Amino acid sequence: MMQYSFTRRVLCLLLCSIVCVFISGCSQQEIRPSRPRQVPATMDSTLIYYLPSEDGQHLRRYKMKTAARDNTPVEALREMVRADKRLDSPLLPDGLSVNYVVVERGTAFADFSSELSQLDTSPSVQELFIHMTTQTLTEFSDIHSVVIQINGQPKMNRSPGLPK
After folding, report:
1. Of 53, 81, 79, 55, whose CA–CA distance to 66 is shortest?
2. Residue among 10, 82, 85, 15 at smallest CA distance from 47
3. CA dist., res. 124 & res. 20, Å (int)
4. Is the dihedral of CA 61, 142, 73, 98 positive or negative?
5. Quick check: 73 and 64 in contact, CB under 8 A?
């Protein structure tokens, strides 16, 4: 009786081993390591900003490849300011910088340095600056209107749908 039980256990163990080998998928397929995944912050992204056209009557849309972590409203405005300085006839005053951009309930509060008060006071220049800033910021899906500030004090606001 003991012999029968022992043989039965060995056969059962052997059968289980064979089933496990088949289930585990014995095959000759080459196992390839998966490609390393990029962390979302290091993936490429497109930063969009606006500058005046050559004739100063319209805006031109510019795109720049950047890391996703740098595709933020404040970086978009900073690139807009840097790119304006490279133009033959810059619109923005020397020394202008972007202090910060805060977005609350769809409104971006874009704060610029005091040099913004030196912006040409002609209506066309003022409008171009407002449109450059508004168009640049409303490229971000969570921004629907813009308040432009100088050192924390509101100076101009614009929703993209307002008359130009």
Report:
1. 79
2. 82
3. 78
4. positive
5. no
Closest CA to 160 of 74, 50, 15, 76: 50
Whether 41 contacts 67, CB under 8 Å: yes
Greatest pairwise CA separation for the chain in angstroms? 109
Residue 161, by phi and psi: left (phi above 0), alpha (psi -120 to 50) or beta?
alpha
pLDDT tens figures, 25-60: 555 555 455 555 454 556 788 999 999 998 888 899
The dihedral built from the CA positions of residue 85, 94, 113 and 60, taken in this order, carries a sign that is: negative
pLDDT digits (tens, 9 = 90+) for 101-148: 999 999 999 999 999 999 988 888 999 999 999 999 999 999 999 999
Residues in the chain: 164
pLDDT at residue number 69: 84
Residue 15: what residue type? L
- Asked if 113 contacts 95 with a C-beta cutoff of 8 angstroms, the reply is yes
